[in-house]
Design brief:
Elements lengths: L2 H14 L13 E3 L4 E2 L7 E2 L1 E4 L13 E4 L18 H12 L4 E5 L6 H5 L12 H19 L9 E6 L1 H12 L6 E5 L8 H9 L6 E7 L4 H16 L7 E6 L6 H15 L4
Parallel strand pairs: 5-6, 5-7, 7-8, 8-9, 9-10
Antiparallel strand pairs: 1-4, 2-3, 4-6
Helix pairs in contact: 6-7
C-alpha cells in the first residue's frame, strides 16, 4: 500500500470535494449551530459545529452521553462529505430504535487546508502540522462547556467520548489520553500513528489511565505502517500500565483507508465503548 500517496490524495479530496453539489442526506435530528468558531493560533478559518440529538430528545428531560467527533462535514451528510458520509445519524437512530440508547454527537468541521495543523499534536518534516494541542484545548475549554450549558448532557468523563479516523484518530488518541478527566472513552480508527515518532513517548507517559476506555482499529489493507503503528501503541500502552480490560484492538483484514470502512465500524466502536449489548 502506498500510504503516503494515499494520505496526499485524501488531503486533496478534503480541500476540493465540497465544491460538488449533492443532495443532502442528513437526518432531521441533525442541526448546525448558528455560531461558527475560529481556532485561535491555528488559522482564521471559520468552523461549523454539527449537532446530532437522540430521536426522543425533545420528548424527555433525560440527559445523554456525548460523543465529540472531527471532520464534521463527513459525519452526517453526503452533500458536505468528501467521498461519502459516515452515516452517524442513521446508525445512531437505528441503535436507539433497537436498544433505547441515545447519544448527543458534536461534529466539528475541519478547516480544509488547516486540517493537518488542527489534527496533529506534533509536526512532520514534510507535511507540517503540529497545532493539535490548541485544537484539543478549544474542545476542552470552549466547546464542551458551551455544549454542557446548552444541552442536556451527562458531562462527566465516563459519559464523554472522542472519536475520529486517520489524523482524526490521532488527535482523538492524543486528546483522550491527555485529558482523561474530560474524555473517558476514545475511538481511534485508522489512526495515523506514523505521522510522528513522538507519539511513542507520549503514549509511554500517558498510558496509566485509571478508567479510560480505548478502541483501536485499523484495516489490513491500509498498509504496513498503519498496522505497525497500532501494534506498537498497543504494546506501549499495556507495558506502561494501561488496563488490558479497557483496551480493544482490531485489525480488519479487508479494511481500507476510506469513509466506507469507517462507516462500517462506527457502531462497533460506540457499542464497545459504552457497553451496549
Amino acid at each position: 500500500m502506498r500510504l503516503k500517496q494515499l494520505f496526499v490524495t485524501f488531503l486533496f479530496i478534503t480541500v476540493v470535494a465540497n465544491s460538488q453539489q449533492r443532495t443532502s442526506t442528513k437526518a432531521e435530528n441533525v442541526t448546525i449551530l448558528e455560531q461558527e468558531f475560529v481556532f485561535e493560533g491555528i488559522s482564521e478559518t471559520l468552523h461549523k459545529i454539527r449537532i446530532y440529538l437522540p430521536p426522543n430528545y425533545n420528548e424527555t428531560n433525560k440527559k445523554y452521553p456525548v460523543i465529540y467527533m472531527h471532520d464534521g462535514q463527513n459525519l452526517f451528510d453526503d452533500a458536505t462529505s468528501y467521498i461519502g458520509e459516515w452515516g452517524v445519524d442513521e446508525t445512531l437512530n437505528t441503535l436507539f430504535q433497537n436498544t433505547g440508547k441515545g447519544f448527543i454527537v458534536v461534529g466539528i468541521d475541519n478547516g480544509g487546508e488547516a486540517r493537518i495543523a488542527e489534527y496533529t499534536p506534533w509536526s512532520h518534516e514534510k507535511y507540517g502540522g503540529g497545532k493539535g494541542e490548541l485544537y484539543i484545548d478549544f474542545i476542552v475549554n470552549t466547546l464542551k462547556p458551551m455544549i454542557d450549558q446548552n444541552y442536556r448532557t451527562k458531562s462527566v468523563a465516563k459519559h464523554t467520548a472522542i472519536i475520529g479516523s486517520s489524523l482524526g484518530g490521532l488527535i482523538s488518541y492524543y486528546g483522550g489520553l491527555k485529558y482523561p478527566e474530560v474524555f473517558g472513552k476514545i475511538g481511534a480508527i485508522s489512526t495515523s500513528f506514523w505521522f510522528s515518532d513522538k507519539v511513542n513517548e507520549f503514549t509511554t507517559i500517558h498510558a496509566k489511565q485509571s478508567s479510560t476506555k480505548l478502541y483501536l482499529i485499523v484495516g489490513g489493507k491500509e498498509g504496513e505502517d498503519m498496522v505497525a503503528g497500532q501494534n506498537i501503541s498497543k504494546q506501549l500502552l499495556l507495558k506502561n500500565g494501561f488496563k488490558a480490560t479497557n483496551l480493544s484492538t482490531k485489525i480488519a483484514p479487508e479494511g481500507t483507508h476510506s469513509e466506507g470502512f469507517w462507516k462500517s465500524e462506527f457502531e462497533s466502536v460506540v457499542t464497545w465503548l459504552f457497553n451496549i449489548n
